[in-house]
Amino acid sequence: PLTAEVNQQEHLQVGGCDVPALVARFGSPLYVLDEQSLRTACRQYRQAFEHYYPGQALVLYASKAWSCLAVCAIATQEGLGIDVVSAGELVTALQAGAQPSQTYFHGNNKSMAELQLALESQCRVVVDNWYELRCLAQLTAEIAAPLTILLRLTPGIECHTHDYIRTGHIDSKFGFDPDQLEQVFGFVSQQPGLRCIGLHAHIGSQIFELQPHYDLAAVMVSWLQTAARYGLAMEELDIGGGLGIRYTEADDPPSIEAWVKTVCQGVVAACEASQQPLPRLLCEPGRSLIGTACVTAYTVGSQKTVPGIRSYVAVDGGMSDNPRPITYQSVYRVLAASRMAAPLSDTVTLAGKHCESGDVVITSAQVPPLIAGEVIAIPATGAYNYSMASNYNRVPRPAAVLVGGGDAHLIIRRETLQDLIRQDCLPDALGVSSE
Ligand code: LLP
């Protein structure tokens, strides 16, 4: 949440833990994940579905937002299934205790090895395209129990968000084209190894409008009806994720409750209009579950003033731990974690430490005069930050701690310099001694 907890020393506190003290203990930069915020968001989704779609909904955590054992374990404990898009995310989810029958494997180019792993683990596969469908038909031709699949379609629904994260428009790399869907239904109905139980679509991410998801429900329900004509017993409808979150005061997303209500009302209205039974309803939020549950703490370092233009304040991380500003021009805000009551008298550009001019965390940040060595914190960095982190410039990825009730537990160890060269090989032919 944007309203920060402040303790008696006027320090930022998350989950009852003093953020500068966490940095002193676990190092910098540091991802600080608030357990209660994550659990609360999981419960808000589940409770809203219980209210508007009782007994027939399943919420999946889109683990691409942040895949690690602890986060998947918490989502699982809260009764969520997991959406995965790679062997790596699948293994993480299963290792964290996710039920295979509540683990859904997405992706537009799953490898043979990934499809094999899906078969062995008996998770559900959301089939994206003809190539994958034919591979699966072959792989499953002789298996004893059929593989449970859903089909992903491109619904042709537009929404307003960054171009890179729109997925529902017709010119998208994901999903079957609506024109081909009947052919797909015909093919699937002939495959003894495939049990197709539903349809899936995802229209995009960081969406603040509700109407696109309402419209999506109608489109999907009509496709369920078409599929039934091919003898496919369609029990499930997965409506994707996409609800936006608040990064700064300028953002005003709908609540989780409002989003769920819209989706449920859309499905119920479309089913009533076409006299169909209600399908089991799935959704797969990522950002709105974990985005606001984390702050990233950095330590302030060098500063530079370009007279008449701007002042730069550099921190000890940047695009390697948060690639979102440079990738999507995302805007964040910053908190002076050890001086929460200080007046915000300066406007500065908060820069990262990477060798690119574009490595800026916040272009225009309101801060008190910052001093080298002090800790600052960027809220709303739970989604697509750790999961998109890199080792650019051979910078080790930060540690992550889970905080709650005043306790902190390490959930991801900080990478060491040795970790960075662990996968490197020096061929003998180079004649370099590796000592
Ligand atoms: N389901 C599917 C099939 C998806 O592709 C995604 C996100 C989700 C669910 C979860 O969407 P969410 O509820 O988090 O909006 N890296 C970008 C976001 C990419 C989203 C990719 N797909 C960013 O940092 O903004």
From TrEMBL:
Any one biological process term the GO annotation gives: lysine biosynthetic process via diaminopimelate
Q: Which GO terms describe its molecular function?
A: diaminopimelate decarboxylase activity; pyridoxal phosphate binding
Q: Which residues carry this modification: N6-(pyridoxal phosphate)lysine?
A: K64
Keywords assigned = Amino-acid biosynthesis, Decarboxylase, Lyase, Lysine biosynthesis, Pyridoxal phosphate
* Catalysed conversion reaction: meso-2,6-diaminopimelate + H(+) = L-lysine + CO2
EC number, as in UniProt: 4.1.1.20
- Pathway participation: Amino-acid biosynthesis; L-lysine biosynthesis via DAP pathway; L-lysine from DL-2,6-diaminopimelate: step 1/1
Orn/DAP/Arg decarboxylase 2 N-terminal domain residues are 38-290
Binding sites annotated in the UniProt record for substrate? R287, R324, Y328, E356, Y384
Tell me the Gene3D superfamilies matching this sequence: Alanine racemase, Lyase, Ornithine Decarboxylase, Chain A, domain 1
Q: Which HAMAP family match?
A: LysA
Its annotated function is as follows: Specifically catalyzes the decarboxylation of meso-diaminopimelate (meso-DAP) to L-lysine.
Record protein name field: Diaminopimelate decarboxylase
The organism is Halomicronema hongdechloris C2206
Q: What is the lineage of its organism?
A: Bacteria, Bacillati, Cyanobacteriota, Cyanophyceae, Nodosilineales
Q: Per UniProt, what is the name of the gene that codes for the protein in this document?
A: lysA
